[in-house]
Amino acid sequence: MAIFTRQGEWLAVSIDALNVWGDSIDPERYPSLRAGSHPHIVRQRLLALALFPEKWINRLFSVGEIQCTETSILLKAFELADIRKELAYRLAQLPSAEPLPTVPILYEDDWCVVFDKPSGMPVHPNGPGHRGTLDEAAARLGLLREDPLPMKHIHRLDDDTSGPVLYAKNELAQLRLDAAMREKRVDREYEAIVQGRPRQASGIVDAPIGKDRHHGSRRRVSPGGDQARTHYEVVRQNAGWARLRLRLETGRTHQIRVHMCHIGHPLAGDALYGGRTEAIGHQALRGARLTFPHPLTGEPVRVECPEPPWFSALAAKLSL
Question: Model pTM?
């Protein structure tokens, strides 16, 4: 059998594989596993091998969600969501006066899913009863498949920014992916169309971002703000506009929009930060690529996002 397999709500881990991986640990302190090994013995060996977060293994042990069969250790990794309590699932079960969009999937397995969020769709509700969010679309997918896992977004995009958004499908995946975000191992690349011609073909904007006390929905470069770094590279430009490729080191609210405004090149359509709106009615920003460590294997997963028609049309209109 494979080393790791999903069996309903359980993750099955091969006993033979765990014993082979344990060759380097003290056999008296951490004895080999066999059919019927006590969950405490299993827990000790799993912690010694450091295959999973200690917090997660200890929680499973405390609630009796570690079991041992003839050939496998079973860990309850895929517990289903309570669709009566979780907000996204409650909303997803309600009738809608208008057809709700089906969001394209860019990558999916048992552990995570990457959606291609369209421009104009919020990631999460902005108030009670707010419908049509990406969270709701993720929940609706679980209901349709009769596999309502507790999917949680790992990062966000502004409502009008399109592109890949990563969701964890279970607690273990969320723990691992949240840690990857904190450790800056989730790489996000964007494309934008901005006003003017940047002086340099590439550069880094390193400027802290804080709230704008004069405008509740804006952010601004502020000495007392949070550290923020944005890498940019000119892909194509003409007399009045430039198409940029951007990469974030940090994930501050409106980071690209604030930093581009700060260096004198607001995004096309971004009225909030001084962008001209005659060519497009929202900021010309899209997520292009997402790279993250897989929550089970740690191997890099690279997801490419197709260019949306509105971005292609704007680039053609501006000769970019």
Answer: 0.93
Alpha-carbon span 75 to 21, nearest angstrom = 18
Pair of tokens at residue 123? 């990631």
Q: Angle CA(212)–CA(153)–CA(163) in degrees, nearest 5?
A: 75
Is the pLDDT score of 1 beyond 60? no
- Dihedral sign (CA 140, 109, 185, 283): negative
91-95, long-range: CB < 8 A, 24+ apart: 91/125, 91/129, 91/131, 91/133, 91/136, 91/139, 92/136, 92/139, 92/140, 92/142, 92/143, 93/143, 94/131
Confidence at residue 23, expressed as pLDDT on a 0 to 100 scale: 67
Helix extents (H) in the chain = 15-21, 39-49, 54-62, 87-92, 134-144, 171-182, 255-262, 309-317
pLDDT in tens, 174-201: 999 999 999 999 999 999 999 999 999 9
Is 147 catalytic? The answer is no
Catalytic hit among 110, 116, 135, 158: 158
Three-state secondary structure call for residue 273:
helix
